[in-house]
Amino acid sequence: MKAVVVASGKGGTGKTTLTAVLAHLAASRFGVVLADTDVEASNLPLALSVSDASCETFSGGAKARIDAGACTACGLCADVCRFDAVREGSSAYAIDPLSCEGCGRCATVCPSGAIAMVPSEVGTACTGLTPLGPIAFGQLGPGEDLSGRLVTEVRGRADAAAGQHAADLLLIDGPPGVGCPLIAAVASTDLLLAVAEPTISGAHDLGRLADLAKRLDVPVRVVLNKADLSANGAARVRELCETRGIPVVAEVPFDPRIASLLEASAADGGRIVPDAASALGPLALAWENMLDELMTDPR
């Protein structure tokens, strides 16, 4: 099985929309499994009409919890807490879970043993079905910061689904940025398809994304999305790619029809509707060529 991650150095580039489009195209030829690793804003399931979703709680690190009945209100826990997470009550102390960093220092100094370290629920990890194939996705809870671990969990669920369905291709909708979540999404993939906007920030973040992919030894191809919105910005992205030797495989003009085409395709059982060919333009041909190259690569 081959794995392709669609990523961008920033949010709002059209990454998820293009991932959905590419999934439609790939599913006409191969067995496809999908993963949405943007766990802070998981939108691919919306674009692909997920059904039969099954979600489980994803636990993060342990956080302190005070048994009010056992607490003697000595205040030692508040004295040692460096994160101001201990709150004084009328008869007992309590922990603010949003402030607690899980260091456990309060539990070690509590003379009455009233403080326990309890695993926290930081989000959900889900699997489901789309008209194109199985999908794994997750949702990080508000204020939580363990998105890298949740991304790894989503990748694991997608790999398991790929094995069960004998899939040929794992297509991953990556998180924005270049931090821990993206590293977890990109690791051990065969190709990174970078979606870039024709802007100064788009070129800058594409450069950072290319640096990361080089460190992880993952080849990069670039799709210049909304390419007609800024001639200067598009030229800036092309110059960056030429300097770094990164192929620009397609330039996609801004087309508001694509979102409605995806909606119609989902309603039609996952098949690309006739108008999609003209809307996708060179991206469809470039994607077909990339899949042919990828699937015949013996690595």
How would you describe this protein?
The protein is of the alpha/beta class. It folds into 2 domains: 2-49 and 131-296, P-loop containing nucleotide triphosphate hydrolases (Rossmann fold); 60-121, 2-Layer Sandwich (Alpha-Beta Plaits). It has 11 helices and 11 strands. It has helices at 15-27, 44-47, 76-80, 105-109, 147-165, 180-186, 200-215, 231-244, 257-267, 276-280, 282-296, and strands at 2-8, 32-36, 51-66, 86-88, 93-95, 115-130, 133-140, 169-176, 191-196, 220-225, 248-252. It has a 9-stranded mixed β-sheet with strand order 3-6-7-2-8-1-9-10-11, with helices on both faces. The chain has a two-stranded antiparallel ribbon with strand order 4-5. α8 (231-244) links the parallel β10 and β11 (248-252). α1 crosses α9 (257-267). The model has no long low-confidence stretch (mean pLDDT 88).
Number of strands: 11
- The CATH architecture classification of the largest domain is 3-Layer(aba) Sandwich
Looking at the structure, the CATH topology of the largest domain is: Rossmann fold
Question: How many distinct helices?
Answer: 11
- Rg estimate, integer Å: 23 Å
Portion in helices: 25-40%
Helix/strand class: alpha/beta
Mean pLDDT: 88
Which strand order do you get reading across the main beta sheet? Answer: 3-6-7-2-8-1-9-10-11
Strand content: 25-35%
Number of domains: 2
Report the major sheet.
Answer: 9 strands, mixed
Would you list the SSEs in sequence order as H and E? Answer: EHEHEHEEHEEHEHEHEHEHHH
